[in-house]
Amino acid sequence: MAVHPLSPSGAPQAAPTAEAVASLIRAAAGIQPRAPGTPGWIDRKAAQVAALLAHAALTLGDAPRGRPLVVVDAACGHGYAGLAFAALLAPGLGLRTRVLGIERDTDRAAEARARARRAGVPDVEFVAADLACAPFPDEPDVVLGLHACGPAADALLAASVAARARRVLLVSCCHRKGAVALDRSGLPGGGLLGDRARQVVTDALRALRLEAAGYRVEPVELMPVHGTARNLLLRARATGGERRAAAAAAQLRRLEALFLPPGD
Ligand SMILES: C[S@@+](CC[C@H](N)C(=O)[O-])C[C@H]1O[C@@H](n2cnc3c(N)ncnc32)[C@H](O)[C@@H]1O
Predict the structure, then answer these.
(1) Are 63 and 92 in contact (CB under 8 A)?
(2) Which of 34, 165, 211, 226 has the greatest number of beta carbons closer than 10 A?
(3) Range list of β-strands (E), 167-250
(4) Is the CB of 63 under 6 A from ligand 1?
(5) Residues 104, 44: Cα–Cα separation, whole Å
(6) 51-108 tens-digit pLDDT
(7) Residue 46 CA to ligand 1 centre (angstroms)
(8) 142-149 and 124-128 as β-strands: parallel, antiparallel, unpaired?
């Protein structure tokens, strides 16, 4: 299977192409392959999912082969990342997998189940639950969070750390005003610069929270050519390095003192 040109360099050949993911999404959504007027969102979503899975593949060289890989697709929406992991990436890598999608919106979770059935993807389950209190499996091998919005990203990280997830791939979106306070830092709070500053600070806090919990975090671009404005991926692996964790915890305290709104 060819690697899509948007994939990160070094991704294994088994990572699915955006075209393969788009075919899967069409099958799941019940759209004929060559239907006229096929919506553009399918190609955009397929490119994002293919890029995310190529990053996931980069972390899976030492994945266990004697049992199914446990994968959580958190804030999964219609579940395309989880579906593509189960139907395309895992078989391409010669891995078995069990995917659990977690989605707060009951209708969307039901639709994800229907789409999995329509596409004929086994070994995936979708539950309607809030990540803040969702049933996370113990020590999942991979947690995927594609465009987990606002507080969902923080809930995903907290749940992943509590469950001792081995790998976490998080692309945040919707960095809300008020979630970090820029006034004490001297950074501009308004306009585009304020938006960018909030994004950087929020992603830095999230990366440090993971590092402080014993993960090695690589902040990388999801796609080298942007198919989405939300393009920063935190690609993290549990390593348990204590010295790195202690340094990250100290840096996190400094950033929290500077950027968390008073009272948080
Ligand atoms: C921007 S969509 C992304 C969906 C999917 N990951 C994708 O890339 O297509 C974010 C999804 O997260 C869900 N969500 C938001 N907050 C959540 C929470 N606290 N727990 C579970 N799901 C949540 C929303 O209902 C929405 O379906």
Answers:
(1) no
(2) 165
(3) 167-173, 215-221, 232-238
(4) no
(5) 23
(6) 999 999 999 999 999 999 999 999 999 999 999 999 999 999 999 999 999 999 999 9
(7) 17
(8) unpaired
**Any ligand 1 atom below 6 A from CB of 55:** no
Q: CA 74, CA 177: separation in Å to the nearest integer?
A: 23
Look at the domain 18-179+190-201+215-239 and name its fold.
Answer: Rossmann fold (3.40.50)
How many angstroms separate the CA atoms of 141 and 124, rounded?
15
**C-alpha atoms less than 13 angstroms from C-alpha of 84 in its C-beta half-sphere:** 32
DSSP code at position 184? G
CA distances 182 to 128, 176, 179, 195, 230, Å, are 35, 12, 10, 10, 20
Q: Is the CB of 103 under 6 A from ligand 1?
A: yes
Q: Which pLDDT tens digit goes with each residue over 187-243?
A: 998 898 998 999 999 999 999 999 999 999 999 999 976 656 678 999 999 998 899
Please tell me the pTM assigned to this model.
0.93
Strand ranges in 46-111 using DSSP code E only, listed in sequence order: 69-74, 97-103
